[in-house]
Amino acid sequence: MRVELVAWTTFDTHAAELASEMEYHPRDDRAQELIEFAGRQCYRSWGRPNQATATNEGYLEHIIEVGHLSVLEHGSATFHVGHVSRSLTHELIRHRHLSYSQLSQRFVVAKNTGDFVVPPLFSGNEAALNRLERAWYSALDIYDELLAIAEDMPETKRKEAREAARAVLPNMTPTDIVVTGNHRAWREMLMKRGTAEADAEICALAVEILGHLKGLEPNVYADLDTVRTDTGRTIIVQGSQKPGKAVAGPLGTSIQTNARGTAVVGSGGSVDRFEVTTVHKTIKDPHLYKGTP
Ligand SMILES: Cc1cc2nc3c(=O)[nH]c(=O)nc-3n(C[C@H](O)[C@H](O)[C@H](O)COP(=O)(O)OP(=O)(O)OC[C@H]3O[C@@H](n4cnc5c(N)ncnc54)[C@H](O)[C@@H]3O)c2cc1C
């Protein structure tokens, strides 16, 4: 899996000052500041009158807590997701508020899309890898035979040959996809897919994407963190950074954070320790506020 953050919203702070008739002064050009700007213009609360929401962190925390999530839609981020399985993308594209452009199996011949994608469960398992490899190369062989048969048919276009031959390609077939979403849509996807119940590969993707988004817009994702469960899977939880606040955990458990920030998951009276594994990617940061012109 290769995940690259390739584009994101930046905020024209100077234009925002002009729009507010110089009453509002954004702190930087991140989308999270744009989100605050959009929210504040609803009430003309440019002067940040409430101390609890005077910081961008406090403002976003309040917005998320009260569920005024439409303002999160003003900022977006785009990822190139490479070398994931077709089964992952089949699940990903169910999220209707994200936008997609996916590698075409009708235009790109299967052997040019890369090696098969190993399901996380079988990673490093020689016996399983051996069978996956056999299935993959036998599917590719039959795919090539079908291409040859189709290409011998009169007036068959290569695109038509590929679209028919791909019938034999398995779920582990690799694919690439560009995905754009606003921050409300990303949060929705991350919370549904970064769970113990979700498919392991898409869960890993959700964790990876959260890492990028926390680096990009930390206050939009401040309530989302990752914990490693005893099965070794890293999942996304909400609210674990708030000491003492219980939040929903995997499989009907609850998670509470102690003073040292350790997430504690309790289920049916038993308490297990879970390691908080907050991912925070280092990204190229173009968000340097250039000062008030
Ligand atoms: C663990 C897991 C197992 C799953 N198993 C299956 C399965 O076996 N079979 C299967 O088919 N799918 C399965 N899914 C997919 C699931 O049913 C959803 O299609 C997917 O999670 C996208 O979520 P969504 O439809 O809630 O939200 P999105 O498309 O991401 O939309 C976000 C939210 O917008 C709102 N919304 C979007 N469109 C509409 C609309 N038309 N009308 C009203 N409100 C709307 C809803 O509030 C929705 O929750 C599974 C998902 C998960 C996470």
Name some characteristics of this structure:
single chain; 293 residues; alpha+beta; six-stranded antiparallel beta sheet; four-stranded antiparallel beta sheet; disordered C terminus; binds flavin-adenine dinucleotide
Distance between the termini: 43 Å
Portion in strands:
15-25%
Backbone structural class: alpha+beta
Largest sheet: 6 strands, antiparallel
Rg, Cα atoms, Å: 23 Å
SSE order, as H and E?
A: EHHHEHEHHEHHEEEEEE
| Helical content class | 25-40%
In total, the number of strands is 10
| Main sheet strand line-up | 6-5-10-9-8-7
Indicate the mean pLDDT.
86
Bound ligands, named by name, code or SMILES: flavin-adenine dinucleotide
Annotation field: number of helices: 8
pLDDT under 50 segments (min length 5)?
258-274, 281-293
Shape: elongated
What secondary-structure arrangement, pairings included, does this model have?
Blueprint: E1 2-8, H1 13-19, H2 31-43, H3 56-66, E2 76-85, H4 86-92, E3 99-102, H5 126-152, H6 158-165, E4 174-182, H7 183-193, H8 200-216, E5 224-228, E6 234-238, E7 247-248, E8 254-257, E9 263-267, E10 270-276
Antiparallel strand pairs: 1-2, 2-4, 3-4, 5-6, 5-10, 7-8, 8-9, 9-10
Helix pairs in contact: 5-6, 7-8
This protein binds flavin-adenine dinucleotide (FAD).
